[in-house]
## 1
Amino acid sequence: MIRTLLMALSLTLALPMMTPAAETSSPQTHCAIPDKVTETARAWIDQGFGAGVVMATIDAKGQTCFFKHGVLKVGEVREVNEHTIFEIGSISKVFTALLLAQQVESGKLKLDTPVQDLLPTARIPKGSNRAITVQDLATQMSGLPRLPLNLNPSDPANPYADYTESQLWTFLASYSLPRPVGSEYEYSNLGFGLLGQALSQPAGRSYEALVQEHLLDPLQLKDTGINLARNQWQRFADGHAGRMPVPHWDLTSLAGAGALRSSATDMSRFMAAAMGALDTPLATAFALVSKPHVDTGKPALMMGLGWHILQIDGRQLVFHDGGTGGFASFAGFDPLSRQGVVVLANSSNFPSPALGLHLLNSALPLPQPRKEVKLTHAQMEALIGQYLIEAIGLKVIVTREGDKLMAGFVGQGNVELHPESATHFFLTEVDANLEFLLDAQGKANGLILTQSGQQFKGERKDP
């Protein structure tokens, strides 16, 4: 349960805390990566929160600087570099939106084209006010849920692999939208998977073939795609949860939501094109996806097509992040300074989005690694026992192994609990925290599991 819960089928936008620091923002005007950022990234890897990371900054002339640290797989010596290939998760949505923008610019589609018109044999849910359009899908305003409710993977470690087109059409045919189309922002992997289908099916091509012909070839992105060649597989990083290896993710029917893999070299070229530092035949399409189209109703957050646009300090930051079971990614740029950033990590709980946003605007907080404290044996003994989180049916067994406190999640093995205090602990395998609740005698009688903004309370249930 802990891996399934904490993996959260993400692929997804996960906005970090974005309250500006007290200092005045200082957007970079060249490609150098500040030492404090590289030192922070190094610390996250070296303290067990990841395996490897490659960061890139791109200046207004398209010049790129890289920082790389760590390995392709924990336990091996091969180091990551700018040619290492990573899963980029939901950054794939920007590629999907760019395909749409290209068709709009060529006159083949309009932003208000109903999705139903492009998929006549499917039944697309219709709102009480109007049909879902391609713009609704591209701006996360369709009313479709985050995931199809009939997604029930046979392998939770690769959750999208066996979700078929037939299941997709079955779900859509039976789903009723909970509100009028265009009335509320809701991040939807399903919506972008559907957009990929709406663009590829009328063309009689696969999503991957469309991306290759219309985006990757014109942009000369040689290490971006879904199905990798043999020499690319040798450079494909293994995914990790913290430093624990996990399988790669495969998306088929929902490919438009997050199926792409890429390198820092390719993503840097993509970002140079996106911010106008590189002449490409896709310049007008890039301009269309990068401008604000709708207000999300969330503080300072607008939607382009695919891109999220954060308004801060009188500037716009255009960005998207991505998360799969074993990878965390970020791509973004400042249209005014024309500075771009790419962060690719082969660990799902590496803070790629927060590092990327800080590189774009130094007033945004730099994520600091967690710091451990040493507990006495008595402090650890007070926490040892069995706990039940009834809300999610999860049993947690806390034990001590020498100077380490361990948590066993029934059916999923043991993980080490890293103490920040006598009652607060973090995990490195997944992005989660445990807080123990003490009685008047100082013995734990419960705990709180926190992950992705959700809290689950458990009671001590010793046999």
## 2
Amino acid sequence: MKKSSKIRIVIFGVLAIMVGFFLAQLSEDLTYAGQYFTESDKELEHSKFYNVYKEAMPAVVNISAEKVVQMDNSMYDMFEEFFGKRFSPERKMQSMGSGFIINKKGYIVTNNHVVSQAEDIVVKLSDGKEMEGKIVGTDPETDIAVIKIEGDENLPIIKLGNSDKIKIGDWVLAIGNPFGLERTLTKGIVSAKGRDIQGITKFANFIQTDAAINRGNSGGPLLNINGEVIGINTAKAGGTAQNIGFAIPINMAKKVVTQLISKGKVDRAYLGIMGQSIDNQTQEALDLDVNYGVIVREVDKGSPADKGNLKVGDIILRVNNKKVENMNTLAREIGLSEPGAKVELTVLRDDKKIKLDITLAKSDSFVSKKQNDLGLELKNHKIGIKVVKILRNSPLRGYLEEGDIILAINRIKVENVEDFNKLIEKYKDSRVLYLTIERDGRRKLIAITR
């Protein structure tokens, strides 16, 4: 045999041994892996939550707002005393929140506390694009705001559902930006409806959910299983509480959003009564057949209630056939109506149910710019105007008390809030104001020095 042939045989032999060794190792590795797990080849089925998220997520935005806030004056004065005017009493703060696009014109719904007093608003879309946001209108009493972005006609939008149709136990999903973690999805159920949680908004009527809602979720949508917005995520319970979040019902928000877009503000309706909720104690004392509703304690002269023949002692049971559970329910139904709207009240009078048609007027219980300088909340009264609230920083605290009736300023008769505003403007440079008031049935003349 030739030498070259022997070399070829040796080479082929070595190659055969190497290939055999490799195949043996591969077989051994497969056998080894198979001892620990089995891989599935079954096609993965996604949950319906994913389909809802996929459809709704593009319309959810991240909102970053820069605000200028005032430092405590006493602290600033202390710094100025020691260091001179090197410190500014103003500080910039950054707030983070969420929102959702409701139409192709770029209108975005969010919470008032996310954007109120903001100087700069940056809206980040789902594709990462950042746009400037402009405030269209805000409503602190419901904690709802509308902002707007410009320049994009192909914006994704989200559909609004009907919050009245949800039931306790229904699945809900929250999409937002908790702690800056963009477009986070959390799920839960409707834990309760109509929660009257004071201190969050004036017209409390919250949906409670155990879907996780954290800082940064504010203003984002709470969705039903169809991917429709049924609430605006707003707050969570503090302290050691877990999985207790609150959302503003979208049906309530629709009324506010419509006004904010159309005129940049919310005009509230006014009935013109002072009332008290009917509880078990009141029911027993008055020997009533009902343990709900509002008993009318006072009717403002010339008010819609007065013109509509509502009387002291009447018990309001329903507004437009909706049950009035208590004073909060009545305030919400009236306050969320527009001035000029007609409402039908079902009233219990002398143990008989009657119906009254009343046309609501524009609310005159408000804090105007001039009143805000004085820190007073006033409302028209049958004679003069009534002090409803005195803010902590009011210069008139110590002179006036809540419940006082202001009858005159510098001997000029005050018949309504408008008169008060005009007289305050007239005497804005006076060093002394003389207020004629009525307190506990007695008239007094109070001298207020500036």
